[in-house]
Amino acid sequence: MAKTRIVITGSTRGVGLRMAREFLSRGCAVMVSGRTWQAVDSAVAQLKEQVRDADVHGHPCDTGNYTQVEALWAAAAQEFGGVDHWINNAGIGQAAAPLWELAPDEMEAVIHTDVLGILYGARVAMRGMSPARSGTIWFMEGYGSDGRIMKGIAVYGAAKRAVRYAAHALAVEAKGMGVTIGTLSPGIMVTDFTLSKLDRSDAAAWKRTRAVFNILADTPETVAAFFVPRILAARKNRTHIAWLTNGKIMFRFMTAGIAKRSVMPE
Fold it and tell me: What CATH class is the domain 5-193+219-245?
């Protein structure tokens, strides 16, 4: 039986790396990617240690560089003979700050990676998959995708709102071409990257932030274990896979005094 072939951008850490491991544990062939060869080689070595006989390969890619995104597709196509699932996971956040206090170069970096990088990935994957009339392109959503507003992340939220629009637009444009489009909503995850963006200067505010995170947040391992089997089972265009649903949020707040979840460091 042929292996399912997966490409995950931004998969040398966080939920991307954990998804790679989950796919490999299910017998898939996986191409991981990060900005540098050092990061890619480290991730590949780690995955080979964790999963016996892992069919894992890696190729560096800055998703904001179209030529590098094309090269990532070419590397996967050469290694696997094609791609069944292309997961647009690479993204960066912003420092918690009002729009007018954020440095222009940081604004540009967020839009470059979180919007343009996603569009580049979608274009490359669509052009690669459509001749075979098969494959699925996945878009990773984030806070702001559904239009909700949080102070201090205006640029990141705008980028994630654009991601949802791009996914829905591509699903309409690709109808009848054999390629399906899906979205992934991971909720709030505790990662080194997330923690580095949180402001701890105000002790009282940090205490409130920790309390909310301990109720709502999860580890990348938990989210990846939820996503992967559902990605592999998806067949319909515009499939939406959400981990932190409104029902789950309500349940967690209602049971917060009993559950006493603790996922955040002090």
Answer: alpha beta
